[in-house]
Amino acid sequence: MDITLVQGDITEQRVDAVVNAANSSLMGGGGVDGAIHRRGGPEILEDCRKLRASHYGKGLPTGQAVATTAGRLPARWVIHTVGPVHSASEDRSQLLASCYVESLRVADELGARSVAFPAISTGIYGWPMDDAARIALDAVRQAHTSVEDVRFVLFDRAAYDVFESRI
Ligand code: ADP
What is any Pfam family matched here (predicted)? Predict the structure, then answer.
């Protein structure tokens, strides 16, 4: 597996699947989630609604992942995963690692070979970038997957530099 880092916008990535740092409702939100729905168009939300109705009436649990169409994005699928909110009192790193592992498992089911990830949980969910980068890189490196290209898409220079120092 090749792991590459890019500084940029995840909605512009030409890959088989882009991963969304979704929230449990699957009904959209801010950050990556907002950008994906804005750029991808209403088809993605339509798919999310269907998934809620058929499988996730109580919401998608933290650490799990599920795929929809990518709508108008230059990707084939969006894989939605729900990161944990960072906690100072409780170690939730297994849940964060699970987001990466489960997203790659869903990618395998789809036959996706290239996957772009944002730095899950490092925005609204408050995870420190350095710790999140360590967990993300370890999880992806240890995953058993047929995905050949994993791309971490870091929104700003600071996040890119943190990932680069750990790769
Ligand atoms: P979470 O709720 O999991 O914390 P966010 O979407 O708030 O998710 O943020 C996750 C990370 O994604 C943050 O580091 C944020 O700066 C970054 N980010 C926000 N928008 C984009 C985008 N369009 N492309 C890539 N990364 C983004």
Answer: Macro
User: Which CATH number goes with the domain that contains 52?
Assistant: 3.40.220.10
* Residue 3 and residue 143 in contact, taking contact as beta carbons nearer than 8 Å: no
Residues 151 and 26: their CA atoms lie apart, in Å, by 23
Which residue's alpha carbon is at the smallest distance from atom 3 of ligand 1? 121
In degrees, to the nearest 5, what angle opens at C-alpha 145 toward C-alphas 47 and 106? 15
Residue with tokens 């994005």: 73
pLDDT digits (tens, 9 = 90+) for 127-148: 999 999 999 999 999 999 999 9
Which of 13, 32, 33, 38, when mutated, tests ligand 1's pocket best, judged by the most ligand atoms within 8 Å of its CB? 32
